[in-house]
Write a structure and sequence with these properties.
By secondary structure, this protein is mainly alpha-helical. 63% of the residues lie in helices and 5% in strands. The longest helix has 23 residues, at 28-50. Residues 37-166 form the DinB-like domain.
């Protein structure tokens, strides 16, 4: 399955190269699920109070970072579903700062955010495991760039790992 899930050049925008490079050779379904425990451990260790403090002015709080990860998981999952089903219409991008600002993640209890992350990961994994293998190479357009279904499933855990690395470094 790992070979089937490895995207080829041209299946994703260069912006995502770092995310994809991080997951090469890894078992994507297992990685999606293992990040649940990694995220839970990090945030439970951090606690509610510390999760409300940004490391610098203008930066997101850890809770906002977690909310952004959840939003991104959901958006990428929707894109994967659309393209796996043969959607030909271009899907829009999203302004992450506007989404975070409008979500008010700091007002959501940390256990609820952790539950949302866990549920999003189970949903992603369930979708991935239910897709016909030939749909994984389907390509659609999102945010003005080509992206394959399998690239999306590589981008998701790579994106999460990027933010986990920042959280571990800054907090």
């Amino acid at each position: 399955m790992n070979e089937i899930l490895a995207p080829q050049e041209g299946e994703f925008a260069p912006f995502y190269s770092g995310y994809v490079a991080w997951v090469i050779g890894k078992d994507i379904p297992k990685l999606l699920l293992s990040q649940i425990e990694e995220v839970r451990f990090l945030f439970e260790k951090m606690g509610e109070e510390k999760s409300l403090k940004a490391y610098a002015p203008g930066k997101w709080t850890p809770k906002e970072v977690l909310g952004h990860i959840i939003d991104t998981d959901r958006i990428m999952c929707f894109r994967a579903l659309c393209f796996a089903r043969g959607e030909k219409s271009e899907l829009p991008g999203f302004d992450q700062d506007t989404y975070v600002s409008n979500a008010h993640f700091n007002n959501i209890p940390l256990p609820k955010l952790l539950e949302d992350f866990e549920m999003s990961r189970y949903s992603l994994t369930s979708l991935l495991q239910s897709l016909p293998v030939d749909s994984l190479t389907n390509i659609g357009i999102a945010n003005g760039a080509n992206v394959s279904v399998r690239a999306l499933f590589n981008i998701i855990p790579g994106h999460t790992q990027h933010h986990l690395n920042v959280l571990k470094e800054k907090y």
